[in-house]
Amino acid sequence: MYQSPLPMIGWAATLAVLGFAWWKGGSAERYGASLKLVTSLVAFAVHHLLNQETISVALLVADGVLAVGFLMLAIRYASLWIGAAMLMQAGQFSLHAYYLVAELQRDRFYAVANNLVTLTILLCILAGTIIAWRARTHAQA
């Protein structure tokens, strides 16, 4: 399936962060983690089920859905980490849109930028989870 161990490491990190968010996070972190998991699974399915001509459009739609989801969470919870994740997702959406409109083939720059944005979003969710967990712990003390 994968020719490199890096995608498996990426999936392990994704599942670890999202699991931690569900375990120790508040409502915002759980919703954000759920959104990220669903869109990650959609992206996985898109890459394995669709042909090359439709992958770009499907990924653009998935990125748009995630960006709108983060926007709704940002409006609802007014959390700094959600705002940062939303901005990162907007950048990822722009990257997909640029490659689609310019009719460029996905290259190494695309892969690196896409993966860095995904990593940054996971770090935002992780930071939000740690902050929510610590705030809840301090409130109980």
Describe the structure.
The structure is a single chain. The protein is mainly α and about 140 residues long. It has one domain (about 5-135). Helix content is about 85%, strand content about 0%. It is built from 5 helices and no strands. The longest helix is centred in the last third of the chain and has 33 residues, at about 110-140. It starts with 5 loop residues before the first helix and ends with a helix.
What count of helical segments does DSSP give? 5
Q: Mind telling me the C-alpha Rg?
A: 16 Å
Biggest sheet architecture? none
Task: Write down the domain tally.
Answer: 1
The helix/strand order is: HHHHH
Instruction: Give the proportion of residues in helices.
Output: over 70%
| Shape category | globular
N- to C-terminal distance: 48 Å
- Structural class, please? mainly alpha
Beta percentage is under 5%
Catalogue the unreliable spans.
Answer: none
**How many strands?**
0
Mean pLDDT: 92
Spell out the key features of this protein:
141 residues, mainly alpha, 5 helices
Summarize the structure.
With 141 residues, the protein is mostly helical.
SSE blueprint and pairings:
Blueprint lengths: L5 H19 L2 H23 L2 H26 L2 H22 L6 H33 L1
Helix pairs in contact: 1-2, 1-5, 2-3, 2-5, 3-4, 4-5
